[in-house]
Batch of 3 targets.
Target 1
Amino acid sequence: MSQNDLVIDNQAGAPFRADINGALQALASQQSGSAAPATTYPYQFWADTGAGLLRMRNGANNAWVTIGLLGVPAFGHVSPGAVLFHSKAAPPNGYLKANGAAVSRTTFQDLFAEIGTTFGAGDGSTTFNLPELRGEFLRGWDDGRGADVGRAFGSWQDMQLRDHNHLTPFAMDGSAIYAIYNGVAGMTPLYNTVTLSGTFRSAPVGGVSGGLIGTALTGGVYSFTGSGSEIRPRNVGLLACIKY
């Protein structure tokens, strides 16, 4: 720790050299100390070791502005590996696109130290992979909760439709189509009745004009024609980025 007023007195010999060295040490250590430097200058840095903060003097030289934490990446504001969505097609300074690319372990050493090869080992020696978040929704890791059992951290998961039932107005069995019927005697079935069998009333295939809500009828299951190849909510596409 070293602080100095950064004023070099008019002197010779050893005292002059000591004054120069004291000023250089103060500059190199960002005027480190638990108390503020006695002499201050606009935009001067001070490593406040008492509070563990890096501070900077404001332009008017009448107050200290806190920059962030001492001795931690990015001064503790946003740590390497943090993910955000940016409202621009290019990442902001200090971020990379979270596009699964293989990047240098040396150039992005802080990020590599944080996430390692969780999302891919790159070439196995000089690079590692970023997470691939393009076109993906994010989900909180289960971490033992039991809502998403057996899920590995950082793993990709394909789309899935939960098991459920849809009641259909009829089912096909060979040459007959069965109208849904609740078994109550005298109830009018949905289609032309020929025989009563269990909780269904059967009707000739020709007595039905085709599926009401679907196009292909097989075993009581309709095949629905949608407008795409995935199930999704309404959304807005932004750029996924990762801090390095």
Target 2
Amino acid sequence: MRCHQQERNRINSPSTGPRSQRPKTPSQQKPGQSRERHYFLRGHIEIPLVDAPGEVFSWSAWVSLSQESVQKIADHWDDPARASMPPVFGWLCNELPYDQPTTSLATHVHNREPGVVPCCVLDPSIDHPLVREQQTGISLHRLAQINQALMG
């Protein structure tokens, strides 16, 4: 899977992410809730368009990363060589309109040069329609079906 050049992105740490994704303070936590911090990065799941060679459809999605992975990315965020960093493991955190759940699909996040959104490559060993679409591509007709599912 080849990643294309796309738009700008930023890292959302627990303190800068959307309010719903920030960890709760101890006084806000319910009994039994974990105090574990979660780290998220927005990336693109790129799907080739077989009817339009060289073009891709991209899902913009959130991926949960380990603290170590987020720290590595943050340390090299403005480094032009960050695109050559090895990919990091993450879990997809969005529910996309597929018959099978998409949350918690394993991903490998590939950094690109500064100002370009990282690319999320789904684990090819997973038997899931989204994984198959990323590997083989989709037709423009399938893209219209996705649009219909989203727009109603």
Target 3
Amino acid sequence: MKWVEICRQIFRQPITIIHGEAGTGKTTIHKSLINGIMKAHGEGTTFQLLAPTGKAADRLRERTGKNAETIHSFLAKRGWLNNNMTFKRSGGTVETNVTTYIIDEAAMIDVNLVATLFKAINFKTVQRLIFGGDVNQLPPIGVDKPFADILHWLKSKFPDSIGILKTNCRQLESGGISLKLASIYTEGSNVEKEINSEDVLQKVQKGGNIVKDISVVYWNDGEELKRKIYQTIISDIEEIRGEKLDPERIWEDFKILNQEDGKHSTRLSKSFHLTEEKHLVRNQLIS
């Protein structure tokens, strides 16, 4: 089903799911729906874009031009998180000013997070609840799979509320072997029929830098794995910076980036004590 047809199909539905593999254009559909809703209901329409991780929220914000944040951030601002980051059963405030919610990467969300999020929403003021995700991607770390349950319920009761994306635009543009490899293990993948699975697996078996978006490293034991991890980290940093790292300044050069909600805060790791791991990195640089 093409993007335009999907937008037309689900535009009038109050609860919808945009389902598709990585690179099929789910975020593009979100942007098109936002534009359509704004035209239909006017500039006063309010949106809340949410995602389970900071990276996903950043991508959603960049692609749609709308403010996006993590679900935990949304809940924390409304008093639904305890100091230890567990969820409150009650006591938080309820959001009443949002008419359209878009929740991306919804397949990663467990039932406790969804339950708390729904407690924080006044559904009497909500016109649309839009989920985006892929049921074949990584499941939630926590309890249950609410996205899969909602998808199954909509399929049986309201099939027009589901837009299924099949064409992998990202793969067509870049020929990314990582997406091809993932598609081999994806149930019902349309890409699997279009590629030579044996050819992909042979490249993985050979190892090394296969293409620009994936490399494969093998190891024999824990010590070798540890060395190769540090070698890979150092090699990647040197490639990005375009210069060799100084072993005497290695831990001053390392930075910790907090990308929550797109606000990058940086602090140098000067206060860390020299550990066995730091000696390993230093030794790798010297050797």
